[in-house]
Amino acid sequence: MQILKFEFLKIFKNKSFIGAWVVLLMSIMAIIFIGFFHSQLMNDKHSSISGRSAVERNLEFAEKYKGELTDKKVKTIITDYLDIYQEKVKEKKQIFDYFQWTVVDTFTPVTEQDIYMEMIDSVRAKKTYTIDNVKILSMHDVGYKTKKFPIYIGNFMTWTDLLQVSANAFIPIALFVILFCSILFANDTSKNLVPLLLSTRFGRTKMIRSKIIVGTVLTIGTFLVAQLIILTVFGCFYGFSGWDTSVQANLDWRIVDFPLEWNMLQTYIFGICFHLIGLLFVSGFTMLVSSLCSSPFSTLAISLGLFFVPQALKQLLVTGLPNKILYLFPINTFEIDKVLLWMSRDNMFFFHSFIANISLIAMVMLGMKFGSDLLVYLRMKKLSLA
Fold this sequence. Notes:
Elements: H1 2-12, H2 15-37, H3 52-64, E1 67-68, H4 71-90, H5 98-107, H6 115-124, H7 139-142, E2 152-153, H8 157-190, H9 194-198, H10 206-237, H11 264-292, H12 296-316, H13 320-326, H14 336-343, H15 354-385
Antiparallel strand pairs: 1-2
C-alpha cells in the first residue's frame, strides 16, 4: 500500500501532470460553454430569444407532444406549428422553435416543398395556410420500416447536446491520459532510476503493479470527474427532461431504424461505458510504449501518433477489411450517434448485429488493455532479472 501511495504522489507532484490537469479542466469548461451555452437550441442567431428562455420554450413544446410517435401525432405537431409560425410572421417575431422545426424538416419533403416560403406568401396575401397544403411523409416513408416496439418522442434536443459534449470531451481526456501514462515508466528510465528501483525488495513485483494500477485508476478517475462536471452543468441548466425519449425519435440523429428499444438515458450510459473502455485501451498501449522508451517525450510522441494515425488511415482506407479494423480504435468511434448508426448497419462492420459488433470492439479494446499491462509487467520484471 505504501508503494502505491508513493507512486500516486510521484505523479501528483509532477509539474507536467499538474499543468496538463489545469489545461484539461479549462478545455472541459470551454467544451461545456460552447456545447451547451452556444448550441443551436440555446443561442440561435436567427431567434429573438436565447438562453434559458429559448430552452424553456422548446421544453414546453416537447412536453406538450410527449408520447408515442405516430403519423397522427406528426400531423398534429405540424398542424399546430403552421398556426404558430404564421402568427409569428404576422407579428414579425423571429423565434426559432427547434422541436417543431426538426419534425417539419423530417416529415416533409423539404427538397420539393418549402412550406416556410409558402406560409410567408400566404400571410402576405392575407390567406390561411393549412395542413391541406402540406405533403406529409409517413413514418414508413421516413425510414421507420418495422415497428417492433413503440417509439416515444419527447425532449431529445438537450440530450443531443449532452452526448455531443461528452464526445467532444473524449479527445482532451485521452490526451491527458496519454501524457501521464507516458511519465509512469519512461520518467524513471530517463533518470537511470530503473536499475535502482528494480533492485529493491518490492521493485520487481509490487512497484511494477503499482505503476500499472496508478495509470488505470487515474484514467478512470479523470474520466469520471470530467463526466461528473459535464452532467452537473447539464442538469443545472437543462434538467433531465426527455431521458425516456426513444433514440429512434431523436430527429437530430436520424437513426430511425436502430434495432434496440433504447431511450436517451440508456444511450448516454452506453456512451459513458464505451468511452471509458476506449480510454482504458489508450492507457494500456501508452504504458506499454512508456516501458519500452527511454524518455517521456519519445513515449508521448509515439503514443500520440498511435492514437491519431488510425483516424487518418480511415480516410484513405474507405472499404474492405482494413477499414473495418480501423473501427477498433477509439479515435474512430468516440461519437456515439455515429457508433449507433455504423454498428447497426449491414456490411458496415464484421457482423449484422449491433450487439455483436459492439461486443467485438469492447472485447478487443479490453483485451488490448490487459494484454498491454501483462507485457509491461513481464518486460519490467525481465529487466530486473537482467
